[in-house]
Amino acid sequence: MQAVLSSDFSFAQFRYLQRLLLVHGRWSYIRMCKFLKYFFYKNFAFTLVHFWYGFFSGFSAQVGPACFLMACVAFSSKL
Fold it and tell me: Where is it found, in Gene Ontology cellular component terms (predicted)?
């Protein structure tokens, strides 16, 4: 009983193991792939905006508008 309480997954019979691995494992893998693709896109877009701003301001160390700084929050909230 203690092993069931401290585990992430528990099932009554081993016949449920196949569905857990093949169905739910695949769904978890697909969700993780979508998340990582979105994560890399978000960080690339956030960095590119700052690079463009720095390039067009001549890398003068001028502080950008607050909307650039809030871009990460806006992208992350759409998850």
Answer: plasma membrane; trans-Golgi network
